[in-house]
Design a protein that fits this description.
There is one protein chain. The chain has three domains: 351 residues, Alpha-Beta Barrel (TIM Barrel); 125 residues, no CATH class; 85 residues, Immunoglobulin-like, CATH 2.60.40. With 613 residues, it is α/β, with parallel strands linked by helices. The longest helix has 29 residues. It is 22% helix and 25% strand. The chain has twelve helices and 25 strands.
Amino acid sequence: MKKRLLFAIILSPLLLFSEPCKLQIGTNLAGPSDWGSEWPLNNIMKYCRKWMTHNTVWVEGGENPWETHYEDFVEFDENGYPLEMPVHFAEAETTQAVRTVWAHTQALPLGRYVLLYDGTGRLDIYFDAENISYSTGRIEFDLKHNDNILGLSILESKRGDHIRNIRLFLPGTENSESPWCSEWLEKLDPFNTLRFMDWGYTNNSTLSKWENRPKVENYSYTLDGMPYELMIDICNYKSADAWVCIPHLADDDYIRNLAHLFRDSLHPQLKIYVEYSNENWNWMFDQTHYLYDNGDQSVEWPERIVPFIQNALDIWTTEFEGQTDRLVRVVGVQGAWQDVSNRIVLNMRPGSFDAFSPAAYFGFTEAGIAALQNLGASTTAEDVIFWAREGMLFSAFEWLQTQFTELAEKKNIPMIYYEGGQHLTPEPFGSDQTYNQALMDAQTHPAMYDLYCQWLDSLRTLVRQDQPTLFMNFSFISPKSGKYGSWGVLENQFEQFPPYRNSAPKYQAILDNLCTEDTGIKKQTVRRFILYKNYPNPFNPVTTFEYTLESAASVDFTIYNINGQRIITLVKNFQPAGFYKFTWNASGYASGVYIYKIQINKNFQTGKCLYLP
């Protein structure tokens, strides 16, 4: 081994920039839902819909609704599994069972799925499930893209040994040592700060007591959001800074325990951005109404918000005594309303926070909306791009310039962006408009790449004293929607592959604008691999290849002939850090020189080997 180390090739950082980095880029993650397209976990049971009741049999002449709405009367255990099935209610047409669904199977990979469970009873899986096999504690089926829905029912469950701990594994992941989906990890790899606003269901949150927070053991995370333990785990796993949002109803005990958990569990070299709720000035969210109604009524709005923010950040400051260098205490503001920003930030106690944060979105001006409405069904993706650029240059950027001038420069307060990217939605939001299709088409139009690069270049000009700022992309992976916005820079983690310029231009623009040098905000991890010379070489007919991964990565190891034609792919999967060794038997192939190529994420290295029969 020592001899072969002499031939080791050690790769440098993934991306190098010739000029100082002025803009670090992180991302928001999509909230757990059965209808989304972001699947972080191999066990997708955690993303199923809340249980609903239904008739166990078809009642001739009855109503037989899809959902009978008796779930509030079913007895559940502490993790959300029913204690007994079926159940009878006097008002019901017949006995009742519970079901859940996944309502966007088009975003899931085809293949063989395995469902495991504990307890005694009977389950049924249907709709897009085919070739189903049942055995005690185990169901296997092939997922097909037929109806875009997958259903699961608990038809029978024995009290005292009720069905529980249901796990539904993506193809090939039943025995994975990691809970994280490899395709998701691979695409998340470039981001070194993760914001968990949607993961924690921050908007309109009902969480107030620490004992009621989401638990890892819960049957699904679509009820109250992802557990904090998983937020910490993914940050530790990939060495990413964490951005956590405190629920607006959280009492002081909740806030204190949340601080303890991140302080004691997140790796001490990682930063923690902490923010009280999200968009507390946005009247479409419950938190804004709560703060308005429950704040000091003698204090004007938005100053009325400040004591809530101040209290939450002060608790974290106290709990991180002696470790406040790990914290970035963030005050969120409205980028388009400077007066509101000033009246919130300037009423915070000096020194009690570390940054203020508007969103960095660009969208349409009133003129742009009017133009799209006039074009109607004839609107093209090019029209959308044109008016999006007009909104960027003559509205969105001017708002952020004002924020930068009034607070960052005049008051010497760092400005970072909690969310940002395109905000191409119809007017009114959530409506069916004749130009909705063009809004979706624009997302993958080649000009979207240039639009994103132009926006990020603009944000780089708003930097204080050459100190970098942080832009949190919104969002990571989500389906397109003409009504509600196409927020994801990716649409599907399983079906989109590099190069992304055509299929995911927003994501490619983000990748091309990342920087990895030490900027004082975040020292990004340098990922390397070591490729050793094959041996023996020349060989007949078997040779051995070895390599070491210094961090988890997507690996593609392929053999080519001297003309560059692919002969065989020996490795193509996501692998954890470690040493790897495998052989190639060239029997049946022509003698001569072969090229072997290993690709690790976006880097590759080649070598030559000689087959002498």
